[in-house]
Design a protein that fits this description.
The complex is a heterodimer of chains A (88) and B (213). Chain A is α/β, with parallel strands linked by helices. In chain A, 30% of the residues lie in helices and 35% in strands. In chain A, helix 1 packs across helix 2. The termini of chain B are far apart. The chains are: A alpha/beta (88), B alpha/beta (213).
Chain lengths: 88, 213
């Protein structure tokens, strides 16, 4: 896992898979997750950050959207509830 | 992509990545998606199935959960809200650049447009030839006032001739011929008369120019 410390990312597009960020600042940045190793953020600050998905992560989001349209909205709602930290 | 047709899955877990299911039946099954190639379900039946995520797909939900809990609730919530309410693209990716190889050809629409164009062309040609036949270019349009180019203009190119109607060239020359071939007074007071021109020409030849004068 890569380590990045005390860095400021301003208006950049970053792929965050498998990276540990420590005391970093993200201003106007776009964080891209592709489904790889989970990134970690330690004592970081986020300001006006956008999320994007690529690869397997993008396909996962599309799969869930397709389930919702295909009559599995209840299942999708349960997964969303787990993400929010609520009981499904 | 592997295609499964008319299969029945019962009391089992099925990994669905990269599969196309046609007219399959799933009863009391777990459908597992791992983040691979998206599966498709065509005319399938589902009874008591649950959705399970594994591998990259599971990590994706864990990533979203971690970001949501770690101070990125707002952007994550935007993704989740759209996921619950619409089936629109939520990946946030840029659209794939246009590539004509993947668009295919809509022969039906092409035929329709071609037919319409042909019909309009035939219509215009028919209108053109119809107009040409019944209203040729050299036909003067009827109206109360004549067109400027067709107004009768009188040009007095021979001022000696009278312009009154009725006097023809034959009548005028006939009067002149009568005068040339007859006797008459030119100036009676001074004794000047005129004789027929043929006689005058004979006198001229006989007596010469000085005598004739």
């Amino acid at each position: 896992m890569a380590h990045i410390e005390d860095k400021t990312f301003r208006n950049e597009v970053l792929t965050v898979d498998g990276t540990q960020y420590t005391r970093c600042v993200f201003q106007g940045a776009t964080l891209v997750y592709a489904g790889g190793d989970l990134p970690t953020f330690v004592d970081c600050r986020f300001d006006n950050v956008a999320l994007q998905f690529d690869g397997a992560a993008a396909r996962t989001v599309s799969f869930l959207a397709g389930l919702r349209d295909g009559g599995f909205s209840v299942a999708v709602s349960k997964i969303v509830a787990v993400i929010r930290g609520r009981k499904p | 992509m592997a295609t499964l047709q008319n299969e029945t899955f019962k009391n089992q877990n099925v990994v669905v990545d990269g599969h196309r299911f046609e007219r399959c039946t799933f009863t009391n099954c777990g459908l597992i998606y791992e983040g691979g190639e998206l599966p498709t379900f065509d005319r399938c039946k589902f009874k008591s199935v649950n959705i399970q995520l594994a591998g990259s797909a599971l990590r994706t939900t864990q990533y979203l959960s971690g970001m949501y809990q770690g101070g990125m609730a707002k952007p994550v919530e935007a993704v989740l809200t759209r996921l619950e309410t619409t089936g629109a693209d939520l990946t946030g990716q840029r659209p794939r650049p246009y590539n004509p190889v993947y668009t295919g050809t809509n022969w039906g629409r092409l035929a329709g447009y071609s037919g319409l164009l042909l019909f309009v062309t035939v219509l215009l040609l028919a209108a053109f030839f119809y107009g040409l036949q019944y209203a040729p270019f050299n036909q003067v349009l009827r109206g109360d006032t004549p067109r400027p180019l067709t107004v009768q203009r009188t040009y007095n190119i021979m001022p000696g001739l009278p312009v009154e109607l009725g006097e023809t060239y034959a009548e005028i020359t006939a009067a002149q011929k009568d005068m040339l071939n007859s006797y008459g007074w030119v100036d009676e007071a001074n004794g000047i008369a005129h004789i027929p021109i043929s006689q005058a020409m004979d006198l001229l030849l006989e007596q010469g120019l000085s005598q004739a004068q």
